[in-house]
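Page 42, continued from yesterday. The earlier attempt failed because a stray header line got pasted into the input along with the sequence. Redoing it now with the clean sequence only.
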Amino acid sequence: MSLVLIPREGHLDVLLLYEQHYPELSNGQLCFTLCYDIVFRYYGKDSLSAIGILSQHKPAGVDSSSPRVFDLLPYAGTERFNWIFSAGTDILADEATLCLPPLVSGPTPLAYRVTRLHPKIDAPAWTVQNGSRKAGSAVRATGLTHAIVYPADEVAIRPYNFKEPEKTTYWLRLCFQPMINYDLPAAMLFNLPGGSPLTVQPYSILGQQAILESLNDQLEKLSHTEEFGGHAQEAKRLMFEKTFCRNGTGAAVRDHRISLLRSKDFLLLNTHLDGPCGFVNIEPALSNGGAAALTWISGNEKYWETDPLAMSRQVYLHMKDWALTEAEAKTKEQISTAVSPMHHYNISFVVEGLKKLGFVRERVEGCASYCTDRARFADDGLIVERYEDIAQHHPLDDVLLVLDTLYGNLPVPAQKKGVSRFQRVGFRVQVELGFIPAQRGRTANGRSEENSLQT
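This time it went through. Structure tokens are written below.
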């Protein structure tokens, strides 16, 4: 997603994350504008004060010694990204209905009644405080950016209330122009007729786990340098244990869409996908001057094995069918073979979570075979229902207990001090963009024309 989200407290149910990547040529140089439309609900005991983000890119014009983060573009200056909404959607209304046409594979259009938030963005306090300033410098030295987003107009982000869905379902647009961290440098392939060089720039869009893995790898490298050393290790603790992998917090993205907007200035030479993400279609982005949008899809509604709550539904429903009694008890290996053979570690974690919550039990303590617990059938909507139905039918404390358990750390059986955590699977979309770096080139017939690559 090229952006990781985490609430400062509680849990986010992200109904939609739509990210758009818009490349442009400015003075012959390739630059990007990134736009993230986020529709979410919050589950917690108190109002949410802020959302933490982690971007795979860095602010433009800022070196690693500066705590500055991205400059957000105002809503009114981001019209080029409105093509994703159906005609008539008023994105400037504070209470709006966001309508999206269906994807090729989708059955019906989507409509979200939302309250719009006006975002502000800043560096986390700990990155500039005396005691942890060096750790903040280590994070910035990785080339990734950690920031805090909060409502500019002091609107409280309240916990989701099914009686007021439109007032507790929020829409946030984050749009900025970063300095891109490319995996590989641009390379000139050959000269086109007329002498203009065709340059190719590989460009990667990373999923959440891929970004966190990149952060971990970069901080580990910095921990072996004289400049950062132990400060990089402290940064790892603050970024993972205290922020993005902290117990009691989580963010689940249901519907995640990624669009690359390509104008006539660019050729798309190659694409590659790795991980839980699929290509959807190519379509015109009508509000964008004739650009074509290449769209991919991810998220736990399509790839349920990437999310602990979504996976727990699959595991529990399987066990209600095939491990209903002690005589039918199944081992974790048998469960993972039937449900998701490639994700045994996470299946094992989910079974332990369901055991802690009381929805499954061991046939005999220590025997490592499991069955459902009939005594909890009346409450198993906490596992099998959707977020909004859970909130409507069950007490908030019960909902938060389930979320805290499945998105947190659990003890490892037979290890006194060992803990485990659901291992998310990241994805990577790799594209290669071909373009003429000069402002004016020559076409095949020798006629001067600005950026003459055609679709």
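Notes: Residues 200 and 434 are 4 Å apart (CA to CA).
Reminder to self: strip header lines before submitting.
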